[in-house]
Design a protein that fits this description.
- The chain is mainly alpha-helical.
- The protein has 2 domains: about 10-60, no CATH class; about 70-150.
- Helix content is about 55%, strand content about 5%.
- The protein has helices spanning about 35-60, 60-70, 75-130; strands at about 10, 25, 30.
- Strands 1-3-2 form a 3-stranded mixed beta sheet.
- A hairpin with a 2-residue loop joins strand 2 and strand 3.
């Protein structure tokens, strides 16, 4: 093991040492039968791979930490954070502008709707003044009463036979 600079030693034998019925270690050297060798070699290989992976992940750890610290304290990193914050602020400003514009449009539509309802009410009232009660009522254009709560969902209580 020393000559080969090996970290694991294995002896495969047909005759196990006294006191050993199955594979095991004596003085840091694995001893197994030919029948056990395949299983032991697979387990040892997996262990070597895991140890190697752990060592590789630790390689240059100090250098990596130093590089990471240098990056986090650099102007480059500060500029990245500033760019992200600026983009976020721009998006917030755009949302505020859109909100104000939409509120203006909604207010304009509310006034248009009110104007349409007012003119509709005036026109219906004029027709009702001519035709009388035979035209019926539209609950959406009347003051609500307890009797009108049971009207149709379209707001018309009575269907007129003829408009005039």
């Amino acid at each position: 093991m020393r000559a080969m600079k090996a970290s694991i030693g294995v002896i495969v034998t047909e005759t196990m040492p006294s006191g050993m019925d199955i594979m095991g270690q004596i003085d840091g050297i694995w001893i197994c039968s030919l029948r056990e060798f395949r299983s032991l070699s697979q387990v040892l290989r997996e262990s070597i791979v895991r140890v190697s992976d752990a060592l590789v992940s630790q390689e240059g750890k100090g250098d990596k930490m130093s590089l990471m610290y240098d990056f986090l304290t650099s102007d480059e990193f500060k500029n990245h954070i500033k760019d992200i914050a600026d983009a976020f602020i721009d998006m917030e400003n755009d949302l505020d502008k859109e909100r104000r514009a939409m509120e203006g449009l909604w207010k304009k539509r509310e006034k248009q709707n009110q104007k349409v309802l007012t003119n509709l009410n005036l026109m219906f009232s004029s027709i009702k003044g001519i035709a009388g009660n035979s035209i019926g009522t539209i609950t959406a254009l009347e003051l609500p009463t307890h009797d009108q709560e049971d009207s149709d969902s379209n707001g018309i209580e009575k269907e007129p036979d003829e408009l005039f």
